[in-house]
């Protein structure tokens, strides 16, 4: 996973450099986020950089497994959910990005590895979904939507926004005994 993210980062950096030379300014970056999920045996491995989040629904409980890289989330990690820094960032810098591919020479991904249980459902979604005032409700709605209703829910809630969402179920597979 790290090599895939590193390769995507090199491509984004190169595209940003080409754009900067073409336009004569350094602000012409190609900044992108990436989330990579690998299911292996009875474990999910996820790496993420950018504004997406990874949620898991297990036994009707929704849990945030990977936080995004927005400025408010950077303050949340550093100072906690009740800190003045975090609350101010939520009010004034909700969409400011702290980490993306293609912005700076070195970038670190966040990783999570979790054991799978039968019935686990995962949602990877971009900031246009979770960062809305009703984002928590929308995340719950996306978990509960029928497969044919998933796209229409995203379209109705995010009209005019550039968003992405992917929901998938994973089944724990039995491991072979030796």
Topology, please?
Elements: H1 2-23, E1 34-40, E2 43-49, E3 53-58, E4 61-66, H2 71-79, H3 84-92, E5 110-115, E6 120-125, H4 127-130, H5 135-144, H6 147-157, E7 165-170
Antiparallel strand pairs: 1-2, 2-5, 3-4, 3-6, 6-7
Architecture overview:
- With 178 residues, the chain is α+β, with helices and mostly antiparallel strands.
- The radius of gyration is 18 Å and the shape is globular.
- The longest helix has 22 residues, at 2-23.
- Helix 2 packs antiparallel against helix 3.
- It has a single domain (2-170), classed as Phosphatase 2c, domain 1.
- It has helices at residues 2-23, 71-79, 84-92, 127-130, 135-144, 147-157; strands at residues 34-40, 43-49, 53-58, 61-66, 110-115, 120-125, 165-170.
- The strands form two sheets. A four-stranded antiparallel β-sheet has the order 4-3-6-7. A three-stranded antiparallel β-sheet has the order 1-2-5, covered by helices on one side.
- Strand 1 (34-40) and strand 2 form a beta hairpin.
- The protein has six helices and seven strands.
Name the helicity range. 25-40%
CATH class: Alpha Beta
Shape: globular
Structural class: alpha+beta
Number of domains: 1
Amino- and carboxy-terminal Cα gap: 28 Å
Please give the CATH architecture.
4-Layer Sandwich
Number of helices: 6
Strand content: 15-25%
Uncertain segments are none
Mean model confidence by pLDDT: 83
The CATH superfamily label reads PPM-type phosphatase domain
Count the beta strands.
Answer: 7
Quick one: biggest sheet?
4 strands, antiparallel
């Amino acid at each position: 996973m790290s090599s895939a993210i590193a390769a995507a980062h090199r491509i984004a950096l190169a595209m940003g450099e080409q754009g900067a030379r073409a336009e004569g300014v350094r602000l012409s970056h190609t900044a992108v986020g990436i989330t990579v999920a690998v299911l292996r045996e009875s474990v999910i491995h996820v790496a993420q950089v950018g504004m997406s989040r990874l949620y898991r629904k297990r036994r009707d409980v929704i849990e945030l497994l990977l936080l995004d890289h927005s400025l408010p989330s950077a303050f949340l990690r550093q100072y906690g959910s009740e800190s003045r820094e975090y609350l101010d960032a939520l009010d004034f810098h909700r969409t400011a990005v702290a980490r993306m591919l293609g912005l700076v020479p070195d970038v670190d991904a966040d990783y999570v590895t979790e054991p799978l249980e039968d019935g686990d459902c995962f949602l990877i979604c971009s900031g246009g979904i979770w960062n809305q005032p009703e984002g928590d409700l929308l995340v719950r709605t996306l978990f509960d939507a029928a497969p044919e209703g998933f796209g229409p829910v995203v379209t109705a809630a995010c009209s005019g926004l550039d968003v992405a969402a992917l929901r998938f179920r994973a089944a724990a597979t039995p491991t072979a005994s030796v």
